[in-house]
Amino acid sequence: MNLTVFALTGAALVGLGVYGLIARVHMLRRIMAFNLIGSGLFLFFGAAGARGVGLDPIPQALIITGIVVALSASALAVGLVVALARSSGTACLPDEAGDT
Amino acid sequence: MTALISWLVLPLFAALAAIALPSRARLPAALLGVGLTVVASIWLTIEVWNTGAVTVSLGGWRPPIGIALRADGLGAALGVMTALVMVAVALAARHELAAKVAGPRIGFGFWPLMLLLWAALNAVYVARDLFNLYVGLELITLTAVALVAISGKAAAIAAALRYLLFALAGSLLYLAGVVLTYAAHGTLDISLLAARTVAPGDALALGLMTAGLLVKTALFPFHVWLPPAHSAAPAPASALLSALVPKASLLILLRIWFEAMPELATPMTQSALASLGALAVIWGGVLALLQSRLKLIVAYSTVAQLGYIFLVFPLAGGDGAAQPWAAGAWTGAIFQMLAHGLAKAAMFLAAGIYIAAIGSDRLGDMRGLARALPMTGFAFALASITLLGLPPSAGFTAKYLMMTAAFASGQWAWALVPAGGGLLAAAYLYRPLSAIFARDTALTPRPIPWAWQTVPLVLAALSVALGLLSSIPFEFLQIGRPEQAAEGL
């Protein structure tokens, strides 16, 4: 039962993230949306891996690796957004409306 | 085994050395790293040729607990192509991106990024674990995005961010498929997955992974990020991005569809993939025809050239995998990957020489440049022969193999794609060629060192030579192929 709650929460996070990705044009919000989707997937992954007898260590190892990957991608993305904001004065991509 | 490990680790060490060493020692260290990795790549190729596919279980742990690496003919061949492109790019970047020409930012950043990209590509070529492949893909994306943004111009940063958005969306789709696969089967090893019992969620997992990889490969209609990103980077970086980066996600696609889950392929999904490929050939070709800048023409041509490779799905996959023509179609697709890699790198490096010589890549400014820079003009023309698929180039071998398979399997409609695509390529490459080889204008470009001019020429010549000597790579590519397609024509 517990695991189902985790899996459903993960799915809800993915849904929220996808909504943010589509509905928002401010790049920082989009980066947060990506992180939400990633976290949702990892939560689902953890719940899926905990089924059966005992704990499966592989999902935990993979989730930690995945978090590191997501962190470095976010760092690069934030760096690029800062560079974009410095050079063009806006944190949105050029052809998209800047209404946050 | 030592060859495989050093092939993976050497570029990583060289990248760290290029960051840590003082500026005087940076270039020699990077070039030494390039040289050593090339040696490791040749060593690995000889080992694969002599003893068959090389398999390593990291730390002695076998799958499903551990991670397996396996260099088969396909992975090692892509490794050699990558090594050739990397050497050429390094030799061109030595002139083009030197700190005193291109500024300290590019002069510092390019070398570690290039070497990290190489390490990540090599890891993807041999990884047998779907999650390992995900990490490799992400490393490739991060270095590729940084290479796009390396000039620091506003347009380049916007192109890099757009690229990153698409690439991250693709990664997450792929990751979602991986998670579902693990939830159903408890393993991510490609060989173990091939022996699994099919679960109901497998089609969804395969679909998610495929969608993610298509975004990363820039297949039509997910190609919109590619041309601005590839043309915003400095030319040697564009060569890496266009010639190598899409091949990694394409390779994973082949591994999943032909090795991990071949039984899930249905005629409809295979035709859908090939149709998208055919649309990419047409759409990329038409847009290339409309561009007025050389780098954009070459970038749109990448969209078109990648499309051909997707014909492999109906011609060599699913039920057709056991047929005699499957080996030809499969090898043709790999030949297209290799030929496109060499020829496209040559084209971008030639474009880099033109930009260095006249400060522009507008077709109108390039008229008559072949008179001042004949070697570069010849290199561009040779690379065009490969992209057009004219004999005796490797592009011809690729299209010939795919068209033969299309006729042999009775799916003759797919043979129209290489034929029509060749005509479109002739149209869009005629414009830059006629500008470069125009007789009318006398230009006085800046002098370009002889050693730099030979680099694209050698690459373009190799893309033609691969077609002339196609029997050796043909045999090499069969090493470690998935069994159900082992019997060739």
UniProtKB/TrEMBL annotation, chain A:
Q: According to its record, how does it sit in the membrane? A: Multi-pass membrane protein
| Alphabetical UniProt keywords | Cell membrane, Membrane, Transmembrane, Transmembrane helix
Give the transmembrane ranges: 6-25, 32-50, 62-85
Pfam families for this protein: Oxidored_q2
Q: Which family does it belong to?
A: Belongs to the CPA3 antiporters (TC 2.A.63) subunit C family.
Q: InterPro entries under this entry? A: CPA3_antiporter_subunitC (IPR050601), NUOK/Mnh_C1-like (IPR039428)
Question: GO CC annotations?
Answer: plasma membrane
Question: What protein name does the entry list?
Answer: Na+/H+ antiporter subunit C
Subcellular localization(s) per the UniProt record: Cell membrane
Give the principal location in a single coarse category: membrane
User: Carries keyword Cell inner membrane?
Assistant: no
UniProtKB/TrEMBL annotation, chain B:
Where mainly found? membrane
UniProt GO cellular component terms: plasma membrane
Molecular function as annotated in GO: NADH dehydrogenase (ubiquinone) activity
Q: Which GO terms describe its biological process?
A: ATP synthesis coupled electron transport
Source domain of life: Bacteria
Question: Localized where?
Answer: Cell membrane; Membrane
Question: Which keywords does this Swiss-Prot/TrEMBL entry list?
Answer: Cell membrane, Membrane, Transmembrane, Transmembrane helix
- Where does the chain cross the membrane? 73-93, 105-125, 131-151, 163-184, 204-226, 238-258, 270-290, 297-317, 337-357, 369-391, 411-430, 450-472
Residue intervals of the NADH:quinone oxidoreductase/Mrp antiporter transmembrane domain: 127-417
Q: How does it sit in the membrane?
A: Multi-pass membrane protein
Q: Name one Pfam family in it.
A: Proton_antipo_M
Q: What does this protein do?
A: NDH-1 shuttles electrons from NADH, via FMN and iron-sulfur (Fe-S) centers, to quinones in the respiratory chain. The immediate electron acceptor for the enzyme in this species is believed to be ubiquinone. Couples the redox reaction to proton translocation (for every two electrons transferred, four hydrogen ions are translocated across the cytoplasmic membrane), and thus conserves the redox energy in a proton gradient.
Q: Which family, according to UniProt?
A: Belongs to the CPA3 antiporters (TC 2.A.63) subunit D family.
The entry's protein name is: NADH:quinone oxidoreductase/Mrp antiporter transmembrane domain-containing protein
